[in-house]
Amino acid sequence: MTGTSRYFELRLYRMLPTRMPDFHDLLGVQVPPLFEKCGVSRPLGFWESYAGPYSPLFGYILPWDSIDARMAAWKRFYADPVWQRKLAANYAGAQRVDRPSVLILRPSDLWARFRGTGPIRTVDGVHEMRFYDASAVVDCGGLGERVAVAKDGGAEVLVIFDAWIGLPLGRRVVFLAWPDEAARLVGLAAERQVFPDDTPRTQVMRPIEYGMPLTGLSRVDSVGSAGLRGQR
Amino acid sequence: MLFELSRYRSPTGRFSEARALVEGGRGALGDHLLGMWGPDGGAVPDRFLALCLWPDFETRERVHGALLDDPGQRSGVDPALVDTEHWIVTASAGAPGEIALMQSDELYEFRFQEVVNGSQPAAGRAFWERTRPEIEAAGGRVAGQFDVALGPGRPVFVTILAWADHPALFVGWRALDRSPAMVAGRQAETGGAGRSNFERPEQWLMRSMPPS
Questions:
Q1: B107-114 and B202-208 as β-strands: parallel, antiparallel, unpaired?
Q2: B77 and A98: CB-CB below 8 Å?
Q3: Contact (CB<8Å) B152/A103
Q4: Taking the CB of residue A172, how many other CB atoms lie within 10 A of it?
Q5: Which of A211, B8, B174, B201 could cysteine-pair with A46, CB 3.0–4.6 Å?
Q6: What confidence tens digit (pLDDT) does each residue in B45-96 have?
């Protein structure tokens, strides 16, 4: 399970308009072998988003046990001649990304309360990436209660992170998965009944087929391919 | 080596309390703490900054981690620090090996400035080769320039300038805005990429904050 990872790297890319397809080709086809070669962790999920304040947005999450190992792996990656050639082409007029954010997060204590205990499977549907500030959460009765209402309303809690580097401490990042958009809207309406004065800051995301997240943001290698047979 | 820039904000009227909270860990930070800066005037009230240097993350997590987990910083119940944000930064491209980060009673100008994605190498080199001499000729001192490696909204450069006082800053930037070399540099950038390498900066005017 992901509980063995001390850190999670959330990489968010605000894309230039019309450049998302090329970024899919880059991340879905070209980069995975380079990640493996350079020791970059296998991503736990990929998402794209056209709804929310950061759209168009591409995001993915990497697990790390050590930030030093993370720094060393990315250093190898950026120095790799294959990547250098891709980067040169990118900056010679084929730019895809307007502005990337690289954030280091830690698993929140709160996450344990909402982790499912059932079989691990891929989680499709409509996902949300929500940001909560600790002070606001206190004002609205606590993030735990808030997430519980979403869960009761039909959301699956993929993960709850605490900010560590790159976001204000106290900020929490929650990934929720809904079966579909209709279910999400019904769930949101139920949340508004309980928290009428607090609308979450949310980015609506679609998981991508070449990097569909697993229940509880589990690692593929933690369940083995047999455990996921027939799920994709 | 890793530079860590920490940005803090206190609720209005509780700056001393917030500062004391962070400074409580100053002894533990020891030589890793390169400096702290507090607000000058009203441009960025209730804000302060700290810069640390770490040999690696394990050290950072061991020494600093306990401070970051301080309930006073993380509690949602009337916290003295309402914003604590840590960025990992590296020297920008073209930076000299040594960066003159010594603390003084000068007026420090922190410029948080978005860079056009992909322009970091060119922007860094242009800064150190072209802009730095112009700033020094205009009476300023370049204390450092960093590229945010772990943080939001990258690429972002953090440029630290030091001026004798407010009039020096005003006169200095007035001269820089009229410098033929600066104007030619901007025209070269816009001629090549269609826009300047740098976006409009978020400017924080600060003073060194010696231990209280």
A1: antiparallel
A2: no
A3: yes
A4: 21
A5: A211
A6: 889 999 999 999 999 888 876 666 554 455 556 677 778 889 999 999 988 7
